[in-house]
Design goal:
two-stranded antiparallel ribbon, elongated, mainly beta, Lipocalin, 11-stranded antiparallel beta barrel, 17 strands, disordered N terminus
Length: 355
């Protein structure tokens, strides 16, 4: 973040300067309407806006999230409690996880009422563990870390205009996730007997879902003077099972946001997001062991997060139609299925360019 912050400040300063030049009257014949930073939702929201006929937009997002500590339902669990959860006698416990995602996207509008979308992501996951010696023992036998890296599932979709009146608009979201990400990633683990072995990593460390997953929903946007707001509902449905015998469970997510524009090129936003996800249905027989992450019942649940963000939009010259966004999120409610690592924070930094 320390390396990124000066860059954001620099772009902000250039944006302000370029806007001032565009309004100082020195080039009255070339003044273009302002580019509203708040015309796009916070950078953590996907499929939030449509484009005009023939318009393209390309984007890049860097997303990172951190998980640390164990939770069962609403309650935190220390290692001693976790080892005996549900009578499972776990001998390996996850202690933390970091996920980094590089997401590329493209949008194209063949008409004013339809915008096509394409998204791909490169994932980098890391999970740390503690291994306990002996049967149901509490003596630490050692620690180890597993990694998975690679391309995730490819997503194609369309946004379709439903209704518009004044500064209010509604469109439908439709996306299909194509199972291009690996679901057979392996790494070396430290077993309770002190031996190292290569094992298939748990469900949360795989790179894809392995299933063709449609996502449907709707997005609303509104505006009044310096204020803008919006809401979105998305349902990801997983009707079948993948080649390894499971699916990740249906997911329902809702989010709502509001943004205030201090000037056309700068807006600050606040957002609330909540989701519920089912447990994993089925099981991969090669994902096994005395660890919570190998149990399909220890996935899914309910969570709500709050986000604060900022959007910056270039106003003229080479910076016009270039955008930067940043958003940071923290959980405010968690009710997890079974015993899981709890998500503590997330950050998204993104760039968008329309032409």
């Amino acid at each position: 973040m320390k390396q990124i912050t000066p860059f954001l400040y620099a772009v902000f300063a250039i944006s302000i300067t370029s806007e001032a030049m565009a309004h100082d009257g020195s080039h009255p014949d070339t003044v273009a309407p302002p580019v509203r930073a708040a015309s796009h939702a916070p950078i953590g929201v996907m499929g939030d806006h449509m484009h005009k006929t023939g318009e393209w937009m390309v984007s890049y997002r860097y997303m990172q999230g951190g998980m640390e500590g164990l939770r069962e339902g609403n309650d935190g669990r220390d290692p001693v409690q976790a080892l005996q959860t549900g009578g499972n006698n776990y001998q390996i416990l996850p202690t933390s996880m970091t996920m980094k995602m590089h997401m590329w996207g493209a949008m194209y509008a063949p008409t004013d009422t339809v915008t096509l979308t394409l998204m791909g992501a490169y994932l980098d996951k890391e999970m740390s563990h503690t291994t306990y010696a002996g049967m149901a023992g509490s003596a630490i036998g050692g620690e180890f870390t597993t990694h998975s890296r690679g391309w995730g599932d490819l997503k194609v979709g369309a946004l379709t205009h439903l209704w518009k009146e004044g500064e209010h608009a509604l469109h439908a979201n439709m996306t299909l996730s194509i199972p291009t990400g690996s679901i057979t990633e392996q790494d070396t683990v430290l077993m309770p007997n002190g031996q190292q072995a290569s094992r298939r990593m748990p469900y949360g460390m795989q790179l894809g879902s392995g299933t063709w997953d449609p996502t449907i929903g709707a997005t609303y946007n509104g505006r009044s003077d310096a204020w803008s707001w919006g809401a979105q509902y998305l349902a990801t449905l997983r009707p079948g099972r993948n080649d390894e015998g499971y699916n990740l469970g249906n997911r329902h997510a809702v989010t709502a946001w509001s943004a205030y524009s201090f000037e056309p090129g700068l807006s600050l936003s606040a957002r609330l997001a909540a989701h519920t996800q089912q447990q994993i249905s089925g099981a991969d027989r090669q994902i096994a062991g005395p660890v919570p992450t190998a149990d399909p019942r220890n996935y899914g649940g309910e969570q709500a997060d709050v986000f604060l963000g900022a959007n910056i939009a270039g106003q003229s010259g080479l910076l016009r139609n270039h955008r930067l966004g940043v958003e940071v999120g923290l959980p405010v409610y968690r009710n997890l299925n079974g015993l899981q690592l709890e998500r503590d924070w997330s950050v998204t930094i993104g760039y968008q360019y329309s032409f």
